[in-house]
Amino acid sequence: MKAEPFVIERVYNAPITKVWEAITDNNKMKEWYFQLEDFKPEVGFTFTFNGGSKEKTYVHLCEVTEVIPGKKLSHSWNYQGYTGGSFVTWELFDEGDKTRLKLTHAGLETFPQDIKDFSRESFTKGWTHITGTSLANYLEKV
What's the gap between Cα 92 and its chain centre? Predict the structure, then answer.
């Protein structure tokens, strides 16, 4: 796998404050994202969640690494019991009454490439669904 980060952009029909709340408020995240026990947009805050494919569930180990309120949230993304380490960055851009989200997931090539769930294709499918369907549907109803 190339050492290129996965990047996806979406524009939502929602103000930046609603999108920021959706990606940083744990109660709201539970409606469209993963079921996190707790989450705080604070540098150093660690969180875990379970996720994966129909075949296997993985424990994700994450730590918030950067927060610019209303604009940027970055966190590590690792898997318990597996080598590799990556970083996810959510960036928000105000486009009037809309918000553009740019999600970057860097370091995918560091995960074991003999595991299908860690393939670039798997991440592409997952992030496309999360940003294009789950988050979009959530923002439409709030």
Answer: 13
For 132, phi and psi rounded to 5 degrees?
-90, -25
C-beta of residue 83 within 8 angstroms of C-beta of residue 73: no
pLDDT digits (tens, 9 = 90+) for 15-26: 999 999 999 999
Q: End-to-end alpha-carbon separation of the chain, Å?
A: 38
Query: Half-sphere exposure (CA, 13 Å, Cβ side) for 2?
Result: 4
Distance between CA 58 and CA 50 in Å, rounded? 6
| DSSP symbol at 92 | E
Asked whether the CA dihedral 118, 119, 124, 126 is positive or negative, the reply is: negative
Reported pTM = 0.96
